[in-house]
Amino acid sequence: MKESPFHDKPRTSCALGGALAAISALPDVIPIIHAATGCGGNLMNSVAFGAGYLGSSYCSGSAAPTSAVTETEIVFGGAERLREQIASTLKLIEGKLYVVATGCMTEMIGDDAGGAVSEFAEAGAPVLAISTPSFQGDCYAGYEILLDGIFNRWLRGVGAGASKPDPRLINVFGVVPGYDPFFRGDLEEIERIGARLGLKVNSFFSPSQTFDNITAAPAAALNVIFSRTRCRGFAERFAEKHGVPWWATDLPVGPEATDVFIRELAAKLGIGGAERVVAAENEWYYRYFERTADSYADGELRFYSVTVTNSNYALPLNKYLYRELGWTPAEIFVTDRLDEARRADLLAGFAELPVKPRFVSGSQEIARSIDRGRPVYRGQRYFDALTPLYIVGSTLEKQMALRRGAKYLAVSFPAYDRAIVAGGYAGYRGGLRLYEDLIGSFMAAKG
Amino acid sequence: MGKKLKQIAIYGKGGIGKSTTTSNLSAALSSLGYKVMQFGCDPKADSTNTLRGGSYIPTVLDTLREKGAVKARDVIYEGFNGICCVESGGPAPGVGCAGRGIITAVELFKQQKIFEELDLDCVIYDVLGDVVCGGFAMPIREGIARHVFTVSSADFMSVYASNNLFKGIKKYSNSGGALLGGIVANSMNAGYSRDIVDDFAERTQTRIVQYVPRSITVTQCELKGKTVIEAAPDSEQARVYMELAERVAAHEESRTPAPLELRELQAWAAKWSDKLLELETGTVPGGQAAGI
Lengths: 447, 292
Fold this sequence. Notes:
The complex is a heterodimer of chains A (447) and B (292).
Chain A: H1 15-24, E1 29-34, H2 39-50, H3 71-76, H4 79-92, E2 97-102, H5 104-108, H6 113-122, E3 127-130, H7 139-154, E4 169-173, H8 183-196, E5 200-202, H9 211-216, E6 222-225, H10 232-242, E7 246-248, H11 255-269, H12 274-289, H13 293-298, E8 304-309, H14 311-324, E9 328-334, H15 340-348, E10 358-359, H16 363-371, E11 389-393, H17 398-404, E12 407-410, H18 427-443
Parallel strand pairs in A: 1-2, 2-3, 4-5, 4-6, 6-7, 8-9, 8-11, 9-10, 11-12
Helix pairs in contact in A: 1-2, 1-7, 4-6, 7-10, 8-18, 11-12
Chain B: E1 6-11, H1 18-31, E2 36-41, H2 60-67, E3 77-78, E4 84-87, H3 98-111, H4 114-117, E5 122-127, E6 147-152, H5 156-172, E7 179-186, H6 191-203, E8 208-212, H7 216-223, H8 228-231, H9 236-250, H10 262-281
């Protein structure tokens, strides 16, 4: 497969895509797609194959209920078709919450999904509608719209009969299912670290969670947002509605970042035990890591790094490569669409790194940026070799890496040249896993 | 010998007199001996009223909604002098896509080869409003209508809508879309109103096809549910519409207009506002003669 000069494959999808991917990871939550035929299937394929072969779950993916509107509904309105679909879904499919998510066409023709849903909600059915056309934003926006719908609209406040505030309970948001391909492994490591601190962690989207985690969310002592660019508005509204304060930080990858995370988290919650956990985890981590030193030092496994990721992963990944492995960042590409304010928020985190991220999403532009002024060796006497180079990006960077003779690993969406199941790069365990993957991917050529 | 079907779209801001102009144009063309279809593309479905004694006809979309399938003949009604009247209609207010409705209606006729079968000389699409969504642009895209005429008064909002339409025409001009035939200047009474539309036409490199004065005759005829051509064929207003019809019938070559950018348009409007104020306050002579 050659790099095409004209076409590009997307590194994101629409708001509906983000919402559907997230719903598919929530236990007992059933999507009802109110969109044109094709939207559900195409968006399902996006993450089912593009997120390390994430696949689908109960009544998600190609089994998701949909109103599948066609021309008749576009002309005359699709609300009736939606009512029919909600009624049949409630009858046939077991779930604890049903989320109607709209697409572009049904929004453009003015279908009142909220109105249709309220008829069922008033009759006591657990149904909610969210507005997720592409003009609301990309998959990351869709994730946030879903969170807003479930936690800030559907869930009753603590005062309205939910459980009492729990000082040892935290909620975790910001890691976007599918479009952060390691969301399950990453969230489970956060749950594990939280448990070591004596905390209960609602991560919602990992397989160890149940629907009860959702209903327990308003009782949490803190919302931890693992994103510098996403979920601010959601967290604000959550705080207003349920009185839970929020803290935005980066997903910690590797021991150094995780040490800081644990200390800050404990301070935020006013709990002790941070140093004990940090010491024990470091002991464990370095007993593994010290043995890599022989191959790492003698094998000269240091690289120039180019990363191509979304804004959530850019900083954690680069900090790990730069500070833990001692690699030299050459380029940092952030591929999701961010407004100026969000870019500024993200850039602030890169102060300690020698390279600032560039906001580019097109594969061609990324390839050109890397090649510009750095020709591939063709017998020149002197040239900026940018070698040895390691490209840590998505599968869309693979051909470029092969052409440049660079090492390469897919860690961001779309990642379809590897399988991702329980793995993640967050925390101590994730740090070791990332090392294994980075080095293992090219050692595979041996033998 | 197959004759060449002339397809024309009439656009303009709502309430500016599009349907009145279109119906009188259809009636006049038909009086000149042409076989005409008037296709109302407006959810209000009142474009062809005055061709049918003030009565409403079932719309394509209503029929489609009730029957599921439509034979073109079921939605074509005969009006004054054998004019074929069609209304695309629209969905219930607030839901559905009226633009898509127009597309559906037009597609239906194309599929069933109705234009050929009826041996029409001329199809006139009476299209709602300025180009606000792709659906309303349908008649000027994909080679359906070849010529666009816009109905405009000297009112700024009307000029604004026309300018927007010109932008739409320009956008599609390279991909086989319709081109601009000209402006039908409507409600031309005050002396300055002619100057305003003339100036706008010059600035956008188009031309005025006819100046239609505001007339009590039109109101009287419409109250009777008739066009001027039918109810007052010997009136001065009828002569104006007949002249318009002759020009439209003879019209062959349309052009790409040169719409003004928003800022240019605002500056243009401000200039005219100053000028009108000067006329009013007597800073420059001639205000009274100009109807101020």
